[in-house]
């Protein structure tokens, strides 16, 4: 069952790159997108999205799963940050126009400080075409974090 992303992640078009959260359970889930020419990162030359955009697809999928978990627990969606990626490997030059891709994320490690590590992969059909481990941070107190760092 697909979920409304407006209720799960803070990204709004044109920065929202994923189309739907297909399913989620504690610490993991699956999102989906179909590449369109109105995507912010679409390249006419590549006829799709550059391979490095896969990292952002993974990060937004993590955000959607986290948002789902917070909403399911009766809370609000929270701000999160992509800190970095490890071992990003993509076997294609671009995510092609009109093609559907599934993004799978699974939390491997979480700390009370808000730091987490996720194993992520992107699939086209049954074939894994990109994979990485992403380090993310979700501040325990979003307002205090913003005030301290940007106020």
Question: What would you say this structure looks like, in words?
Answer:
The protein contains 2 helices and 8 strands, in the order βββαβββββα. The protein has 151 residues and is of the alpha+beta class. The protein has a single domain, classed as Thiol Ester Dehydrase, Chain A (Roll). The strands form 2 sheets. Strands 1-2-6-7-8-4 form a 6-stranded antiparallel beta sheet, covered by helices on one side. Strands 3-5 form a two-stranded antiparallel ribbon. Strand 6 and strand 7 (115-124) form a beta hairpin. The protein starts with 19 loop residues before the first strand and ends with a helix. The model has no long low-confidence stretch (mean pLDDT 95).
What is this structure, in a nutshell?
With 151 residues, this protein is an alpha+beta fold. It has one domain: Hotdog Thioesterase (Thiol Ester Dehydrase, Chain A). The protein is 19% helix and 40% strand.
Keywords, separated by commas or semicolons:
alpha+beta; 40% strand; globular; 2 helices; 6-stranded antiparallel beta sheet; Thiol Ester Dehydrase, Chain A; 151 residues; two-stranded antiparallel sheet
**Count, helices:** 2
Largest β-sheet summary: 6 strands, antiparallel
- Order of H and E elements: EEEHEEEEEH
Structural class: alpha+beta
Backbone shape: globular
Give me the side-by-side strand order of the main sheet. 1-2-6-7-8-4
Instruction: Supply the number of structural domains.
Output: 1
Strand content: 35-45%
């Amino acid at each position: 069952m697909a979920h409304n992303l407006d209720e799960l992640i803070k990204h709004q078009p044109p920065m929202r790159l994923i189309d739907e959260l297909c399913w989620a359970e504690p610490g993991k889930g699956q999102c989906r997108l179909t590449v369109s020419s109105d995507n912010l990162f679409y390249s006419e030359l590549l006829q799709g999205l550059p391979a490095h955009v896969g990292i952002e697809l993974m990060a937004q999928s993590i955000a959607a799963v986290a948002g789902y978990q917070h909403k399911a627990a009766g809370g609000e969606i929270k701000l999160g940050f992509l800190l970095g990626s490890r071992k990003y490997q993509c076997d294609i030059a671009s995510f092609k126009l009109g093609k559907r891709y599934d993004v799978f994320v699974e939390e491997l490690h979480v700390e009370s400080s808000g730091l987490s590590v996720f194993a992520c992969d992107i699939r086209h059909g049954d074939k894994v075409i990109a994979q990485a481990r992403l380090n993310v941070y979700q501040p325990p107190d979003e307002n205090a974090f913003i005030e301290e760092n940007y106020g």
